[in-house]
Design a protein that fits this description.
This protein has a five-stranded parallel β-sheet, with helices on both faces. The protein has a two-stranded antiparallel sheet with strand order 6-7. It has a single domain, classed as Rossmann fold (3-Layer(aba) Sandwich). The mean pLDDT is about 90. It contains five helices and seven strands; from the N terminus they run βαβαβαβαβββα.
């Protein structure tokens, strides 16, 4: 009896803090969907240098942390971004990392879910949503969730708010449908 391999999901936290609420939320979502997805958590956000188009004229000339990030994106069947909002905007480190993927088109047609989990979040969420649309993240209009006042809804890495849990389950059901429509990514060396 053959088993169908799990789809690979890359989890990206927009926070560079090691103990952020966004990291905890991604871990909780991974636990909820462990039977559906093989999760990889990217921890290299702080390693990405400032975007410089002069260093990105060809896809293989970018700095090594950028090349590693792009490789993880290519190896993933889908991406989930969970981010805070900083000063009514997208965290700079996250926007910078995404900027490095424009020329390589690694988000193009890649199922991508956006969760903005912050105190408010609506401004940063709207801005990042526009960026993900421009770089052609697949089904982004349906794969988005804003969780305001997130610290009142998560405790010790667990989702404690019933409405938030319901919204996350709905998002992940839609994400799973989108990811399953695509063939599993196979990277050849």
């Amino acid at each position: 009896m053959s088993t169908i391999p799990k789809k690979k999901v890359l989890a990206i936290s927009g926070s560079t803090r090691s103990n952020s609420t966004n990291h905890h939320l991604l871990q909780a979502i991974a636990a909820l969907t462990a039977n559906d997805f093989d999760w990889a958590f990217w921890k290299g956000l702080s390693d990405i240098p400032p975007f410089n188009p002069d260093e990105d004229k060809e896809t293989d000339t970018a700095p090594s942390p950028v090349l590693a990030f792009r490789q993880l994106l290519r190896e993933s069947d889908g991406v989930i971004i969970c981010t805070p909002e900083y000063a009514h905007g997208v965290p700079g480190a996250l926007k910078n990392a995404i900027d490095w993927t424009v020329s390589s088109a690694d988000f193009s047609h890649k199922p991508t879910a956006l969760i903005t989990a912050a105190t408010d979040g609506k401004y940063g969420h709207a801005a990042l949503l526009e960026t993900l649309k421009v770089i052609e993240a697949k089904n982004i209009e349906q794969l988005q969730l804003l969780i305001p006042f997130v610290r009142t809804k998560i405790n010790a890495g667990r989702i404690t708010d019933e409405a938030t849990m319901k919204a996350i389950r709905q998002l992940m059901d839609e994400f799973k449908k989108t990811v399953l429509q695509l063939p599993t990514v196979t990277i050849r060396s």
